[in-house]
Amino acid sequence: MSPHRSTIARQRMKEEDPQKYEEYLQKRREAEKKKRDEEKRKWEEETHTRSQIKEKETKDEMKRTKEKERYYRKKAEQTRQTRSSACVTPGPSSKRPRDMSPEEYRRHRADARKRQRDNQSSQKKTAIKLKRRAQRREQREENERQNASTALP
């Protein structure tokens, strides 16, 4: 589908006469601001029916969704596509864990742990490492206390 004639005209104006294009954009911004201010003033002055309130809420919701879509589209254009994000990830295996042999199940769980760890941020990995270190220290101290108490008699 080809672009609209007005779009082509604006693109041509942007290429041929940037100063005129900037003036055009400035005029459009001012007109849009004036229109928004007028709508806002009108909304604040008048009393509203339920249908008008519902209509405004749906309009605001549409505006928010469009802004969100625009944000994510722009973000996707600006980010670099890496090889790993460009390829399709394999789906789950056809075998269920309950149907697997003990060796297959062990391999399956190891892969799941690896995938989960790969998806964690470095901060999360560091926090887990510190927590495990503290747990091992407590366990070691507990074992030493038990060994010391059994060695006394």
Notes on the protein architecture:
By secondary structure, the protein is mainly alpha-helical. Among the domains are: 1-41; 99-151. Helix content is 79%, strand content 0%. It has 6 helices and no strands. The chain has helices spanning 5-16, 18-45, 50-78, 83-86, 102-119, 122-151. The termini are far apart.
Overall body shape: elongated
Oligomer: single chain
Q: How many strand elements? A: 0
**Main pleated-sheet profile:** none
Low-confidence stretches: none
Mean pLDDT: 88
- What is the terminal-to-terminal distance? 91 Å
- SSE arrangement, N to C: HHHHHH
| Annotation field: number of helices | 6
Q: Structural class, please?
A: mainly alpha
